[in-house]
Specification:
Blueprint (H helix, E strand, L loop, with lengths): L1 H95 L3 H6 L7 H13 L8 H28 L13 H7 L3 H10 L2 H32 L4 H27 L6 H7 L1 H17 L1 H15 L4 H4 E3 L2 E4 L7 H5 L4 H35 L1 H14 L3 H16 L6 H19 L6 H26 L5 H12 L3 H13 L4 H10 L3
Antiparallel strand pairs: 1-2
């Protein structure tokens, strides 16, 4: 047992010795690595010293670069300021050396327009606002004085152009005036920039307004003469409104090109034609008093021809002629108002249409009252004359209804009243046969009314004619009362023949009776 323990102890000692040998061997290797690490550390220390040196050098170089950059900025600013100063001095020199011929060009309006435009271009392209040199201030004052003097002369000259005798002719496009003013459109542009342009534009608008009002008055007098000579008022109205449209369009293009270039000219055109529209309505009112039916027919015709196709969408409502929001309109609707003249002409037509509606209702009311005042016979003759001329369905329908109602409520007191009623019914029907301006319901109503009157006429005629043996005398009297109305006479003849036992005798009475 003791021997075993000793052996174990010796084995442990041997293991310990082996491990110790290994440790000594590894320690020897570690020393060689430590030497290598020391060398690496020495090299790193050398690199750190070199890096610190480079950092110092880079910092110094960066500071030097910043200094150079600052100097470059200052130098660049100095160069720019010098260049600006040079340019300003160059401009100033140009201004101070403006030739006398340019000043002389503005002394007289007889100077060729090209030279005047050149002088204005030079004077208005320079600016001396920022200069305080006495020489610059003197030149500035001289230029302003020269421009002010020229614009004053030109204003007087422009007014002289428009001071020609007021035309006495009808409504026309003022081509000659446009040709006279157009060469000065560039001068007008300069005038607009440097003077109160309303002074000169108001001269033109006032002249145009007065001229067009005068010409319209003359044109309306011509239409009145047309009425007096029983000529075609429709054609006269069509010519009038076509002339108005062409005048609006020509004035639009001229104002837009010469008076207010590159600006919306709607406001100026509305001012020019503001009184014009009122004068037109008043003129129509006078024509209406002289010939109401033909006037209304003519108005209806021009309204149908010239009314804006999409007016319900373009304008806010029937009594408000302001334009709707353009973004809400489609392409075709926008095209109807893409020029100022289309807008003011569209408004004019709608104003005329509104006035036409008033006149139409006024006419219907007056005619119904006049019918009652004159009595059935005279009133019917008046109504028949209207129905022969009227091309307005609403008027025809109203007057026809009035007559039918009046005759329907007419209680005949004697047979002659029955005959008279049949004659009046025939006259109404005859007056409307050639009138294509009746609605279908009125035609049906009129035919139904005629059938009732004819039935009444037949029934009463039989009882009246053949009530005793003196029918021949009564037949002759009725024939004379019917007169030349062959249709009514033949109708009466048929009634008598068909209801008589002696047809040949009746035939002979009609043959031998004159009317």
């Amino acid at each position: 047992m003791q021997n075993t323990n000793e052996e174990d102890i010796m084995l442990e000692d041997n293991n310990l010795l082996e491990n110790l040998d290994k440790f000594i061997e590894e320690t020897s290797n570690l020393k060689s690595h430590i030497n290598s690490l020391n060398l690496i550390q020495e090299h790193c220390n050398s690199l750190a010293s070199s890096l610190n040196l480079h950092i110092v050098k880079m910092s110094a170089l960066s500071q030097e670069m910043e200094n150079v950059q600052e100097k470059n900025k200052n130098l660049d600013l100095e160069i720019r300021n010098t260049t600006l100063l040079y340019d300003e001095l160059k401009k100033l020199l140009i201004v101070l050396e403006i030739k006398d011929e340019h000043f002389e060009a503005l002394h007289s309006l007889n100077t060729p327009i090209s030279k005047i435009e050149r002088a204005l271009d030079i004077f208005t392209s320079v600016s001396l606002e920022n200069y305080t040199l006495d020489l610059a201030l003197e030149k500035k004052e001289l230029i302003q004085t020269q421009l002010k003097s020229f614009f004053k002369k030109f204003s007087t000259f422009f007014a002289t152009i428009l001071a020609s005798p007021t035309p006495t002719g009808e409504l026309i496009i003022h081509t000659d005036l446009y040709k006279t003013i157009t060469p000065y459109k560039e001068i007008l542009k300069y005038f607009k920039k440097y003077e109160n342009y309303t002074l000169i534009s108001s001269v033109y608008t006032t002249f145009s307004k007065d001229t067009y009002n005068h010409e319209l008055s003359y044109q309306l007098k011509i239409i009145t003469k047309v009425i007096n000579h029983d000529m075609d008022i429709k054609e006269a109205f069509d010519i009038l409104f076509q002339s108005i449209f062409l005048v609006y369009r020509a004035e639009n293009f001229f104002v837009k090109r010469v008076i207010l270039p590159e600006e919306d000219c709607l406001e100026m055109l509305e001012f020019i034609f503001r009184d014009f529209n009122n004068a037109l309505v008043n003129g129509i009112k006078k024509i209406y008093k002289n010939a109401p039916v033909t006037c209304l027919n003519a108005l209806k015709s021009v309204i149908e021809k010239y009314r804006p196709k999409n007016s319900e969408k373009i304008f806010k409502n029937k009594n408000n002629f302001e334009i709707q929001d353009k973004e809400s309109l489609n392409k075709s609707e926008k095209e109807e108002i893409n020029e100022s003249y289309k807008i003011i002409f569209g408004k004019l037509i709608l104003e005329v249409e509104s006035f036409y509606e008033e006149l139409k209702q006024d006419f219907i009311q007056k005619e119904r009252s006049q019918y009652e005042y004159e009595g059935r016979k005279k009133g019917l003759i008046r109504t028949i004359n209207i129905l022969k001329k009227s091309e307005i369905e609403e008027i025809n329908s109203s007057l026809l209804s009035n007559v039918i109602e009046s005759l329907s409520n007419y209680p005949p007191k004697k047979y002659s009243d029955i005959v008279n009623k049949r004659i009046l019914c025939y006259q109404i029907l005859n007056s409307t046969e050639s009138n294509s301006f009746l609605i279908d319901s009125d035609k049906i109503r009129l035919n139904e009314f005629e059938d009732k009157v004819k039935d009444e006429f037949e029934k009463e005629s039989i009882g009246y004619v053949f009530k005793d043996e003196e029918y021949e005398k009564r037949i002759k009297n009725i024939i004379k009362e019917i007169g030349e109305l062959k249709i009514v006479k033949n109708e009466f003849k048929k009634i008598c023949v068909e209801n008589s036992d002696n047809k040949n005798e009746i035939e002979n009475i009609f043959k031998t009776t004159e009317y």
